[in-house]
Amino acid sequence: MSSNLLSVEGLTKEFNGFCAVDNVNLKVEKGSIHALIGPNGAGKSTLFNLLTKFLDPSSGKIIFNGQDITREQPSQIAKRGIIRSFQISAVFPNMTVLENVRIALQRKLGTSYHLWKSVSTLNTLNKEAMDILDSVGLAEFSDTITVNLSYGRKRALEIATTLAVNPVLMLLDEPTQGMGHEDIDRVKELIKRVSAGRTILMVEHNMSLVASLADTITVLQRGSILAEGSYSEVAKDPQVIEAYMGNAHVEVLGEH
């Protein structure tokens, strides 16, 4: 039985002759935190879009849990448990924190499209929603209108709504983008907490976060894999230092 939850084989995406993802081979091990890094334009977001089928590949295969999912639709991908967060927080700003999580849980009741049912039918989800909020450190904010949360806590809420749909593979797209140090530390601890028993693939620019969380790092450049390995291995790779991290980051790399 393979230890890989996700395998990408020769994945390629071309746009009018421009190759955004170029023959990528990637394996994500079950139960691991796997980070994708690289400069802007390296192909990270395009790769995420291919995995969630927002884009169709020009060639190559995507294997998930031993099944070829290359030609499946986004709804089928989501049902398999591949759930993605986005760079911009995607929560309902004028609802409470609890209501946001209840909506994510609602499909379990089979009432997702029953628009005229009483909101009281969702009360059966309150305990489960509160348990999820507790797991991400937001239980005390359950009655807070989401727009009033700090940016870091909004991202924590987005992770909570992701957890509510019971992901097998969580795709986190720059979870700390635009955050200050305090919020970054909070989200780092949150990712550590929710990774137990789950597999996470994340795109992230914050190298300190990547160093402290990732079991494996894949470095992309111009749509191709430049290097792969542990943080210590990648940090010492001369091509990576030159192409992505730059001389200004060498001292930081040496600290981990």
Automatic annotation (TrEMBL):
Residue ranges of every copy of the ABC transporter domain listed in the record: 6-247
Alphabetical list of PANTHER family matching this protein: ABC TRANSPORTER ATP-BINDING PROTEIN (PTHR45772:SF3), CONSERVED COMPONENT OF ABC TRANSPORTER FOR NATURAL AMINO ACIDS-RELATED (PTHR45772)
Transport among keywords: yes
UniProt keywords, alphabetically: ATP-binding, Nucleotide-binding, Transport
UniProt keyword annotation of Secreted present: no
Domain of life: Bacteria
Signal peptide extent: none
Protein name as it appears in the record: Amino acid/amide ABC transporter ATP-binding protein 1, HAAT family
A GO cellular component entry from the record: plasma membrane
Pfam family, one: ABC_tran
GO molecular function, one term: ATP binding
